[in-house]
Design brief:
The complex is a heterodimer of chains A (about 210) and B (about 350). Chain A has about 210 residues and is mostly helical. Chain A has a single domain (about 1-210), classed as DhaL domain (Serine Threonine Protein Phosphatase 5, Tetratricopeptide repeat, Alpha Horseshoe), CATH 1.25.40.340. Chain A contains nine helices and two strands; from the N terminus they run βαααααβαααα. The termini of chain A are close together. The longest helix of chain B has 18 residues, at about 290-310. The chains are: A mainly alpha (about 210), B alpha/beta (about 350). The interface between A and B is medium-sized, with 29 and 29 residues. The structure holds adenosine-5'-diphosphate (ADP) and magnesium ion (MG).
């Protein structure tokens, strides 16, 4: 089960984790992109935090939507519309809800991921955000179906996301700026796959500390 | 790093303020969200033509706002795509009821942000088409990359499409024209030095003193190859060969379909350059290369066109799509028909391009 408060806490923890990893993400982006992914994400979640105050008493859909809008209007680059779409589509899946069952948690994360995939026209193995995000959501779904508790199921999912991010290292990038490097993108971990892992980790931290 | 600036954070704001002050007769700048718009917008019955992208390529796009070219331009942070709220607010400001044409350079961020902006504008009842420019032949395949990047042809498209909008073309015809320009334009760039973004203070890539990079993108994206500096004629020859090489380049571009009321993938291929074709030749400075060197480049471009039987009917030479202070140049050839030449010659009055008025 996930409450409105948990969602708000998730966003706050996301902002903290992204701020802590700002330099790290930007360094990853320097290798195969344009050295701004950490700054982009940090800027976006700082803006999302500012807007939380206005929606903190509203339903979960409205909270997620405000995060999506904040990211869309402040991140720029490729990550802005991608993560923005993630939260907007996630919001649509659980509009007007005050709390989410474990199945609904899977549902809203999957809806967001599907939205992101459609926006970016991405396939698994293209060395992008979805290489950590999508397998993690599948793991979460399986774990829940097997009867695991949400926090436990999430732990498996975060593990899978971390692994997915690491597994981008030998891949050749086929989307985004990194794709212009072709073979030269091999040997570097994808920044977007890494930030997606951090966002899921923030959810785990939230679940474990409540 | 030495730059004429105050603080790195307020570089953009200061430059836009200056643009607005210098050209208050043509344009104004709105902040929060940031966009540049024609002073006389919305222009009655005219399709509004909008473009935008990361800053650092000036005069693109803000310098092309004015009569006969763009109605609005949305500058992002330096080398970072602008956001949909900028494009949406700009659209509302300049929309005159006849629709919006967004001219979008093919970078993942720009394409997706403009798509979202188009969706937002459509939700408010505006008719919107996005046409993507992807003319950089340094990128060879579209299957395993984000595809060719949008470079020099963008400037020519903004001029020609802007003139057509001024002449009263309807939105669908304007979109067709812009698509045709994109398919008939090809570019190739090269760099002698990298550039330094004010925010990072570091060169965007490393290039040894005696090295050049052929096929560079306008943000310093890697090119086709690095080589030692050679005589200009040899460099131009390599670039021209790449531009005129008639390999089949097919890509799928996402466009809005009014019929299906959704985004659809459209497949498109470049027509070849043939003997007897009329072309506009555009020799562009990346920012740091002086015009004198561009004329040296143009001499060889003209010679090669002559040999290949391409007739240069119009030319544009100067810094029009730059990469801050990067030294280097790009060459664009655009195959044109009579309609495109007529629209090229039509009056234009913007900070960076002015004739016939
Ligand atoms: N089409 C896409 N689909 C999914 N993720 C993408 C796509 N294109 C790029 N990305 C992700 O975006 C990340 C880069 O984000 P960022 O640096 O913020 O944007 P930009 O590349 O515009 O500078 C990449 O590491 C990659 O994971
Ligand atoms: Mg980046």
């Amino acid at each position: 089960m996930l409450s409105r408060n948990d969602i708000i806490q998730w966003i706050k923890t996301s902002a903290t984790l992204l701020a802590e990893n700002k330099e790290y993400l930007t360094e990853l982006d320097r290798a195969i992109g344009d050295a701004d992914h950490g700054d982009n994400m940090d800027r976006g979640f700082k803006k999302a935090l500012l807007q939380l105050d206005e929606v903190k008493d509203k339903d979960i859909g409205s909270i997620l939507k405000s995060i999506g809008m904040a990211l869309i209007s402040s991140v720029g680059g490729a990550a802005g519309p991608l993560y923005g779409t993630f939260y907007m589509q996630a919001a649509n899946a659980v509009a007007a809800k005050q709390e989410l069952s474990d199945e609904e948690v899977v549902e809203f994360l999957q809806a967001g991921t599907t939205g992101l995939i459609n926006r970016g026209k991405t396939k698994p193995g293209d060395k992008t955000i979805i290489d950590s995000l999508q397998p993690a959501i599948v793991t979460l779904k399986n774990n829940i179906q097997e009867g695991q508790e949400l926090a436990e199921a999430m732990q498996g999912a975060v593990h899978r996301a971390e692994q997915g991010a690491r597994e981008t290292i030998p891949l050749v990038a086929k989307k985004g700026r990194a794709s212009y490097l072709g073979e030269r993108s091999v040997g570097h971990q994808d920044p977007g796959a890494t930030s997606a892992y951090l966002l899921l980790k923030a959810l785990l931290v939230t679940l474990e500390s409540r | 790093m030495k730059k004429l600036m105050n603080k790195p954070d307020d570089v953009l704001r200061g430059q836009l303020d200056g643009l607005a002050k210098a050209h208050s007769d043509l344009l104004q700048v709105h902040f929060d969200p940031t966009y540049i718009y024609r002073s006389d917008a919305p222009v009655k019955n005219k399709v509004a033509v909008i473009s935008g992208g990361g800053s650092g390529h000036e005069p693109l796009h803000g310098g092309y706002v004015g009569k006969g070219m763009l109605d609005a331009a949305c500058p992002g942070e330096i080398f970072t795509s602008p956001t949909p709220d900028q494009m949406f607010e700009a659209a509302k400001k300049v929309h005159a009821g006849a629709g919006i044409l967004n001219i979008v350079k093919n970078y993942t961020g720009d394409v997706m942000n403009f798509e979202m902006a188009a969706d937002m504008a459509r939700a408010e009842g505006m008719k919107v088409h996005n046409i993507i420019i992807d003319d950089d032949v340094a990128v060879k395949d579209s299957l395993y990359t984000a595809g060719r990047r949008g470079v020099g042809t963008t400037v020519l498209a903004e001029k020609i499409v802007g003139a057509a909008a001024e002449a009263g073309y309807e939105l669908n015809n304007l979109a067709d024209l812009c698509r045709k320009i994109n398919l008939n334009g090809r570019s190739m760039g090269m760099a002698l030095t990298p550039c330094i973004t004010p925010g990072s203070g570091k060169p965007s890539f490393d290039l040894a003193d005696d090295e050049i990079e052929i096929g560079i993108g306008i943000h310093g994206e890697p090119g086709v190859r690095r080589t030692n500096i050679k005589p200009a004629d040899e460099i131009v020859e390599e670039m021209m060969l790449a531009i005129m090489e008639n390999i089949e380049y097919t890509r799928t571009l996402r466009e809005w379909s009014d019929n299906q009321n959704d985004w659809i993938d459209v497949e498109a291929s470049d027509p070849p350059f043939n003997t007897g074709d009329n072309v506009i030749a555009f020799v562009n400075s990346m920012g740091g290369t002086p015009i004198s060197e561009l004329y040296g480049v143009y001499r060889k471009v003209a010679e090669i066109c002559d040999e290949k039987g391409l007739k240069i009917v119009r030319k544009l030479i100067g810094p029009y799509i730059t990469s801050i202070e990067m030294q280097g140049c790009s060459i664009t050839l655009l195959k044109v028909d009579d309609e495109m030449i007529r629209l090229w010659d039509a009056p234009v009055k913007t900070p960076a391009l002015k004739w016939g008025i």
